[in-house]
Sequence to fold (171 residues):
Amino acid sequence: MLKKIWYHLEEFILLPILVFLVCLIFVQVILRFVFSSSLTWAEELARYLFVWLMWFGVSYAARNRTHLRVTMVRDKFPVKISETIELIVTIVWLLFGIWVAYKGIQMVQSIMQYKQVSAALQLPMQYAYAGVPLGAGLMCLRLIENMYHDYVVPLIKHEKISPPTDKEAQF
Fold:
C-alpha cells in the first residue's frame, strides 16, 4: 500500500489541483463573460495553485524520466561513455534541485518572518510558495531513486547472479 502511494504521490497531488484549477478558471470565465461579474479571489488562487502544479509536475516528470533532453551529443558516444555522461548530467540536475529546494526553504522562511499575506484571499504567502521547496525536494528524491535503480540495483543483481570465478572460489 505504501509503495503504491509513494509511486503515485505526484498524481495524488496533481490531479485534484488540476481538476480544481480547471473548474475554478471555467467558473471565472463564465462569470466574467456571461454575467459580467467575477470572483475577486479566483485569479489569485489559480496563480498559486499553478505554482504547486508546476513544481509537483517537475517531480512527476523526473520520476517518469519525461523531461525534455538534448541527447544528440550523448548518443554519438559508445554506451559506457553515454552512461557516464548520463550519470554526470543527473548529478548536476540533482545538485541544482537541492539548490532550488534550499533557496525555496529560505524564501518561505523569509515570507513567514515578514508575515506576508495575499491581497485578495488574505492567505499567508508561505502556503502559496511552499510548493517550490516541496516539489524540488520531491524531484531530488525521484532523481536519487532513478540513480539507485540505474546504477545500484544492476550491481546488486550482478553480484547475486554471477557465479564466483575460480580464483574467488579458492578463497
Q: What stands out?
A: Residues 79-114 form the longest helix (36 residues). The chain has seven helices and no strands. The radius of gyration is 23 Å.
